[in-house]
Amino acid sequence: MINLDCAKIARALKNDRDAAVYSNEAGDFFMKAGEKDRAVAIFKDSIDDFMKNGNFDGAGKGLKKLGEYYESQYNPDIAIPYYKQAAEIFSLAPYKVTETEKLKLKMADMLSEMIDKPEMLKEAISVS
Question: What is the C-alpha to C-alpha distance for residues 26 and 23, in angstroms, rounded to an integer?
Fold first, then answer.
């Protein structure tokens, strides 16, 4: 895959911005192609690259994307931490307040549905 090769070259050249963009595009491709595990690993690399570059918006979007993937797989125990990280990163940008609140509400909703774990209800209340 060309985007993965481009990301490797960009990393070798210490160009975190391009590495992040190429990795993110490759992750999207693999997700659409049904290679979910590979896509998740590639998205994690792109999030690291976005963070190194100081692009918190890109990192937050990547974390949100992983949360959405695990939510679609009915795995809230993994999705919630990704949403939480995304909300924390989005909260650093004043223009992303709405996105932060949406993610907090999503987390609270998911936590409140975990009725088999009473401690999660307390966490749901503290999140919202």
Answer: 5
Tens digit of each residue's pLDDT (9 = 90 or more) over 77-90: 999 999 999 999 99
CB atoms within 10 A of CB 92: 12
Instruction: Let me know the angle formed at the C-alpha of 19 by 75 and 95, rounded to the nearest 5 degrees.
Output: 65
Distances in whole angstroms, Cα of residue 57 to Cα of each of 20, 40, 104, 123: 12, 18, 16, 26
Q: pTM for this one?
A: 0.86
Size of the chain in residues: 128
